[in-house]
Each structure stands twice: as C-alpha cells, then as structure tokens.
Design goal:
ten-stranded mixed beta sheet; D-Maltodextrin-Binding Protein, domain 2
Length: 443
C-alpha cells in the first residue's frame, strides 16, 4: 500500500468519525450535556402569569448568580396567547417556549415539541412531579415540564363560624349540608342574606366549571383520557369496580349534587342567581365559605383587609378516606413547553431544568401563592398555615385534558341551566353534554 492510499483511508476514516460524532450531537435531543451555542442564547418565553412577579424571581437569582437565567419573559393573556402564537408562527418569529395551563395544551400540542423519555426518563418524571402534571404526558414523552400547581381550596370566614360556635370548617360534603341551616340566613320567602356556600348556579359562581370537575374527580369519573394523540371521552364512566363506590353515571350524580344548592325546595339551598359573583360576595363577608383557587388569596386579602378568613382543603365525600375512596380537588397545572419551530430547543430545556429546581420552584410558588409541582418539596411541607394547606391540596389535585376550555365551559353552563329550569333531567343533560364532547374532540 503506498502512502497516498494510506492518506486517503485516513481522511475517509476521519470523515466517518466526524459524521458519527455529529449524529450523536444532532440526535441527542433534549437533556444532552455537551456545550453548544444554543446554551448561550436568551430564551424568549411567553406566559400567562404576571410579568412583574415572574421577573422579580428571575432578577433575584441573577443578582446573586449573574447570567444564571437567560430568559426574556413576555406576559400574554390566556384569551389571546393562542392566536398570538399562530400569528408568530406564520411570521416565522415564534417564541422559544411557553408557560401555559393544562387547559390549552391539547388543541395546541401539534405546535409543540415532545420531550422524549430518552431525554427525561419517565421514571424520573413520575418521581419528581405530582400526578396532576401527568396531563402533559404521553406514551412517548411529555409535552411539558410541570411547574406550578394552583388547586381549588375552601376559604372560610372565621367570624361567621365563631359566631355560630363552630370551631372548624367542614371536611365532608355531609358536613357542608349540615351547616347550611346554621350558617345561612334565608328568609321564609327564600331570600338569601348570607350563604353557607355559593354553589348550584353557573353564571354567578366563580369557577363553576372547575368545581364541577373537582366533584367529578371525587365521584370517580374517568374524565377525558389520552388515546395516543387523540382524546377518549370517559366522562360518564366510573373508575370504581367496588360496588360500594361504583356509579353507573358519576357525572349525573355530580350534577344532581351541584344543582341542589340553588333549589329552594332542597335542604341544601344556599344560593341563587340574584346574588352577585360568589368571590365578591365572600370578600364582603356575606358567605361563610367560598371555593376558589389558591392563587386568589392575595386578591381576597386586598379586597377586604378586615375580612377574618382562613384556607382549608375542599370538602370531600364521606367515603374518601375509606378503602377504594378517592380524595380529590381540581387544579390548574402551569407547565413549561417548547415551541416546535424554535431553533433553541436544547437551550429551552436547560432553562426549564433551572426553573423547576427545588429552590427556584419554591420561590415561584410562594410568589404566586400556589404550590410547586415537585413531590420532594410537597413531601417536606410548609410551616406557613395557608401555604401548608395549598401544598397538601396539590398532592391530591387532579386535572384533565380539555379539548377547548371556552367551548366546554359553554356546554357546562347550558347543561346546568337546563337542569335548574327543568328543561331536561340530569340524566338527559349528561347524555347531551357527553355527545357534545364527542363532537368536539372529533373536530
């Protein structure tokens, strides 16, 4: 073999080695440890959380660790972030990543990058993040990294309870109904001057949709589940096999339970549509309790600094603590997702890992009065009273894939009002609702 042949062989071998290394770098995907130019860029992150609060945490960390976070955060409205994203994609100028709640994930997932289990092992995902974050999970990977959990909790007026010699808020729904004649003020002609709990209507009950879904989780509805890249409607099916818990139609049971609170002929009557919005009503001291999101706490305090109230877990079924029972509340899950057209997917993933680290995610949770998504933090708990309740609620919080949050809300509103006005029975209403959901997820 002459020297020229040897040189050619060496060059060819070198080219193959280079291509092999390049292939490893290209296909390593998210989570690769190697340095690359993408790690040195600033990530454009759009989110629905307030910019001032988000930036305050970032700036605090960067003050002590210059350049630790490389994020340019833009606040977007929940009602416009999807259309803004579509326009940005058309203009070939999309953000690199989003911070969004679970309810707009499904109809936008084709615009996002799936983080495969080879980059973030499924076992690590399950061990790190709470169950409600699994709405972003598929069989192949996850569309998002769970960041913050905002569960529904019960706010209760301590003065109202104390005046009636009641020391603690209700723990079960039986307790709630038992307290209605004690804590509500209802005249003989059914006019309400104080409500035990604002439930039963849709138009003036804040978060009526989310409360109904919290009750559905408690009742054991299978809800909407992912079937590969599609949704399967299991709303009317029960997760329970035990006859003591099984319901043929858990959603119908929930609707009957929910609407009784606005029925003047029922012992549970405690609310009607003539009253103002339930959150405002509670902030004025006119209701004994209020079901709202944990993130509402600072706003409630600001509306009425003199209101003497506290935070408790949402009431549960009396069977929740028994074998086979299901303790649940509803929560919005704010997650970090990578936009498919971003050239900086690796850099975005790197920033996600920083944002969801224990120290950072705890700071964000405290800033927004919600819970972190990490199991290790929630297991440790908090010594702060309201925070401890919120963090514990995050452990049993549930969520679901929403095909369209605004359309589903409209369907639910029609369903509740049809039952209240007697247009249809609860059985007929749930069947209509289920058919509407079927049509929606086929679109």
């Amino acid at each position: 073999m002459d020297s020229r042949t040897s040189i050619v062989q060496i060059i060819v071998l070198g080219v193959f080695i280079f291509l092999g290394i390049l292939g490893v770098v290209v296909f390593a995907g998210f989570g690769s440890a190697g340095k690359n130019s993408a790690q040195d860029v600033t990530i454009n992150l759009w989110g629905v959380l307030p910019k001032d609060s988000f930036a305050a945490v970032i700036e605090s960390f960067n003050l002590n660790n210059p350049g630790y976070f490389k994020i340019n955060y833009t606040e977007k409205s929940l009602s416009t972030i999807e259309s803004d994203l579509n326009e940005a994609i058309i203009d070939k100028n999309p953000p690199d990543a989003l911070l969004i709640p679970e309810n707009i994930l499904f109809r936008n997932q084709k615009k996002l990058s799936l983080i495969s289990w080879s980059a973030l092992p499924e076992r690590e995902f399950l061990d790190t993040f709470v169950e409600s974050g699994e709405v972003f999970k598929t069989s192949e990977g996850t569309y998002g990294i769970p960041f913050l959990i905002d569960p529904i909790v019960m706010y209760w007026n301590r003065d109202v309870f104390s005046s009636a010699s009641k020391a603690l808020p209700p723990k079960t729904w039986d307790d709630v109904i038992g307290l209605i004649p004690v804590l509500s003020k209802i005249s003989e002609d059914k006019k309400i001057s104080r409500s035990m709990i604002p439930l039963g209507e849709f138009q003036n009950v804040s978060h009526a949709k989310e409360i109904i879904f919290a009750l559905a989780h408690q009742a054991g509805s299978k809800m909407l589940v992912r079937d590969k890249e599609q949704l399967s409607n299991q709303l009317l099916s029960s997760i329970y096999n035990d006859a003591a818990f099984s319901q043929d139609n858990p959603f119908e049971i929930v609707l009957n339970f929910f609407t009784q609170f606005s029925d003047p002929t029922k012992p549970a009557y405690s609310w009607n549509r003539s009253l103002e919005n339930s959150g405002i009503y509670f902030s004025k001291g006119n209701s004994a309790t209020y079901l709202g999101f944990a993130s509402e706490l600072p706003g409630l305090r600001a509306k009425n600094p003199n209101l003497n109230f506290d935070v408790a877990e949402i009431p549960q079924s009396k069977n929740a603590d028994l074998a086979g029972g299901r303790k649940a509340t509803f929560a919005h899950v704010y997650s970090l997702v990578i936009v498919g057209d971003s050239p900086y997917k690796q850099a975005s993933y790197n920033e996600f890992m920083k944002l969801t680290s224990p120290e950072v995610s705890e700071r964000f949770a405290q800033k927004f009065s919600v819970a972190p998504s990490r199991r290790d933090l929630l297991a440790r708990g908090s010594n702060r009273a309201s925070e401890a309740t919120v963090w514990n609620s995050a452990l049993f919080a549930k969520s679901f894939l929403d095909p369209d949050p605004f359309v589903v809300s409209s369907y639910l509103k029609d369903m509740v009002e049809s039952i209240i006005t007697g247009k249809v029975s609860s059985e007929e209403a749930t069947q209509i609702f289920s058919r509407e959901i079927d049509e929606l997820i086929r679109k």
